[in-house]
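Researcher: I'd like a candidate sequence for this fold, 285 residues long. If you have to choose between options at a position, lean toward the conservative one.
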């Protein structure tokens, strides 16, 4: 059969473009030349080019997933200080960042804590790790997605819109408690929670405990039904620490005060270094 094929090498760039193999289209001249030079078997050349195409395809996919995820810039595990939240187990979080079984089961993560304690940073860092591991994530403010779903309901496409969100293994709903039932009819949020129950995961951050979620959902029964579904399979983390913002601001403030008093002392003494040294010397009692 192959004997019957007329091969025109000059058509190769065109054929590769037609087959949507951009990486091979770019790299074949260099690799065929190398294969000729080094006497590669044809199968090695073919396998090498196929691997390169597949690798580049995976990279492009992750790149697309990065863009669609809308994670917070710079908020990754590299910049997250676990020592600031001693109640959070780093190994547990890192295990969640690998994905796998909890995402397959559609389990949820709930992060509670006061404003500034690191909920959004941690959520974004988890999302980033999951994207790196090949999962699809959407990070959104809860108020934004409620608005989007309400528009969909008005246009009679709520179900289709929720179905489309299924492509995300994880949706982060940041600041759930900023959603207000009096501002908007928020049963759309319940629809989303119910649709994803035991199928697709949610990560919710909230600065108020469950007891106060009645301000989010239209009535107490719906609040209970939503909470029930969310916590049935869930990891719940409470970051009960003082605001990281405030803490670092306090440290900076203290540093400024120390610096200011050092400067003052410096101007009063001949050798500032001598003063510091003296202070640091253990008392020779
Ligand atoms: P929350 O969402 O709980 O209100 P954020 O995640 O927005 O808090 O954190 C507030 C600020 O403090 C952000 O700039 C965040 O990067 C930083 N931050 C909070 N916790 C930590 C932490 N443990 N390590 C590093 N930065 C942190
Ligand atoms: Mg936040």
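Model: Candidate sequence:
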């Amino acid at each position: 059969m192959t004997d019957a094929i007329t091969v025109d090498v000059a058509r190769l760039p065109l054929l590769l473009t037609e087959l949507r193999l951009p990486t091979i289209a770019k790299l074949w001249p260099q690799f065929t030349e190398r294969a000729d030079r080094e006497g590669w078997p044809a199968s090695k050349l073919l396998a090498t080019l196929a691997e390169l195409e597949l690798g580049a395809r995976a990279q492009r996919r992750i790149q697309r997933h990065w863009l669609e995820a809308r994670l917070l810039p710079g908020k990754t595990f590299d910049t997250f200080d676990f020592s600031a939240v001693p109640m959070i187990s780093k190994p547990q979080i890192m295990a969640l960042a690998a994905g796998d079984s909890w995402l397959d089961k559609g389990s949820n993560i709930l992060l509670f804590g006061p404003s500034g304690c690191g909920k959004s940073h941690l959520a974004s860092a988890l999302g980033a790790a999951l994207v790196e591991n090949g999962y699809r994530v959407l990070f959104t403010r809860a108020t934004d997605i409620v608005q989007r779903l309400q528009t969909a309901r008005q246009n009679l496409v709520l179900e289709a819109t929720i179905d489309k969100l299924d492509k995300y293994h994880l949706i982060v709903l940041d600041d759930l408690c900023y959603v207000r039932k009096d501002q908007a009819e928020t049963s759309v949020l319940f629809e989303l929670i119910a649709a994803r129950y035991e199928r697709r995961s949610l990560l919710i951050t909230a600065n108020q405990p469950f007891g106060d979620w009645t301000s989010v959902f239209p009535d107490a029964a719906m609040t209970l039904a939503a909470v029930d579904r969310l916590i049935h399979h869930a990891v719940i983390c409470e970051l009960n620490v003082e605001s990281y913002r405030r803490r670092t601001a306090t440290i900076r403030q203290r540093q400024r005060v120390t610096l200011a008093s050092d400067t003052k002392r410096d101007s009063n003494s001949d050798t500032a270094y001598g003063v510091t040294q003296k202070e640091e010397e253990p008392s020779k009692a």
